[in-house]
């Protein structure tokens, strides 16, 4: 799993430093994805209110099990920025 590929071709093993960078990136990306998901859910909740469960059923997904978000408009999630990918992670098109 700690191998670097260029396309489908094996290039080399990751160094211990690169493995550490990748783990840190994964942790930060997971936090960012959670933030985005919760932010979208909060926006949908504020737009549709009680219709939220109906919206989820229209999308074919069960309504997520979450706690109620206070109706106070000043309640906001602390922003989380998308992490920068390690230098050895480059998309090749």
From TrEMBL:
Annotated family: Belongs to the protease inhibitor I33 family.
GO CC field: extracellular region
Taxonomic classification: Eukaryota, Metazoa, Ecdysozoa, Nematoda, Chromadorea
Matching PANTHER family: PROTEIN CBG07421-RELATED (PTHR37969), PROTEIN CBG13105 (PTHR37969:SF1)
Stated name of the protein: Pepsin-I3 domain-containing protein
A Pfam family recorded for this sequence: Pepsin-I3
Subcellular location: Secreted
Signal peptide from the UniProt entry: none
Keywords for the protein's UniProt record, in alphabetical order: Disulfide bond, Secreted, Signal
Domain annotation Pepsin inhibitor-3-like repeated: ranges: 2-49
